[in-house]
Amino acid sequence: MRYFNTEGLCKSSEHYMVRLDDRLEKIKKLYVDRKKYFVINKGRQYGKTTTLRALAEYLQNAYIVLSMDFQMMSTANFADEQTFVLSFIEYVEELFFSEKDSMNLISSEALQSLSGLKSQEKKTMKEMFWHLSRICETSKKPIVLMIDEVDSASNNQAFIDFLAQLRGYYLNRENQPTFYSVILAGVYDIKNLKLKIRPAEEHQYNSPWNIAAKFKIEMSFSSDQIAAMLAEYEEDHQTGMQIAEVAEEIYQYTSGYPYLVSVICKYLDEDVPDKKGFECMSDVWTKRGIEEAVKLLLKENTPLFDSMIKQIDIYQDLRDIMEQILYQGRKIPFSPAEKSMNLGVMFGFLKEEDGHVAIANRIFEMYLLNLFIAQEAVRSDMYFYGQGSKNQFIAGRRLDMDLVLKKFAEHFSDVYGGNDEKFIEAYGRKLFLLYLKPIINGTGNYYIEAQTRDAKRTDVVVDYLGQQFVIELKIWHGNEYNERGEWQLVEYLDYFHLKKGYMISFNFNKKKAIGVKELWIAGKTLIEAVV
Description:
531 residues, Rossmann fold, 3 domains, four-stranded parallel beta sheet, 20 helices, 16% strand
């Protein structure tokens, strides 16, 4: 029986997975068949290894594929040029000897000539590539070189020399036979890696890989691709799920990030059925079940989340961008030349959206919010007030959001009512999220709706034990803007099929009436707190 796999390589015979045939055909047609050298750069757990392994199998009828993984070579193998050459030749021998079909397609004399280099006292990169060129020249099929986890070797002079040789032979391929296509895969873009090349701690950006074609194949999953995977699961398990709706809901949380798609499905298959209220599989594979799976995921210390924490601790500018997007709704123009943005995109945490930089998916937004809130909670008065008042907001496992807004308005006015406009615009929405967090913590989730987020307005969506609340947080910009915001909230409530919505207005008018009021617009009830 197949299952959802989140650890390492996925195989269609063992795991439920998105079919890669279309992707593989595009890579073959647009890159390999055109003799391209290219790099697949994507964040961790983005399906790079699975794609490479599937591609190697997909290409085997037309090509000889040398599929390497630089993680299989230790740091010592890159210590100097001679050590690397010896290690690389042994790796090539191992690949040919393990694939008898490939051995029959190359010249045994050419391979023996390459092997003979190992016994020489001085082994150089130049000589190794000369012998590799002879193997490529005499091969009965074009040879494709694949190297996974290539950035694990990036901090070595031997690796730079290796890239330089690949580049030199690529540029002179008409006169010197070489690999038909070269595919490198890793998190880091090797064109941008800062590489240590001298003992004196000097650094430079390497340039030998400026021949690489830009890789434009989409690696994330679409809603339709997720649905096709779920259809296979449904055929085996007969849960009665609405496949298209479930696939779209998973996509809304993940934006198709492969690991996140798989891990949510894994929780739905293995963990959610053990939770109260999900005894029937027909209840599991629903929007409510997905919310439960997301809640479980956000409590885990996954390698992906650990990597995110590590990178934003190292790159403070990257963290600042994320906080400005989440808390202030800043529309920051996207530029791949801006270092922190480029790093965020490379790691898979950020993306370009309509000319602006955005958090890559809702799961990352929720995780980052939880992280930032937790780090600030220890010194936040609003978190303290929310935590101290928590019990009065919950009655019969139902959340009283009307009371939450009322108490927030009171506490906010007491603590921050005298602060200036600049402070409130920068921190007002953060303070509400700090107040709300301990109230729903462990039981509910919340996220900031990306479609409505800007410098003036942010919508927070709260899911709490089957209840859903939409709270609009906005900066006061006059009566006309306020009325327009009310109608926008009404339209958004229609989208969520809700009759009641909430608004918090941060109003800098000295004559404002602080407190909570109830409005009725187009059949909707709006509860508005003015602070």
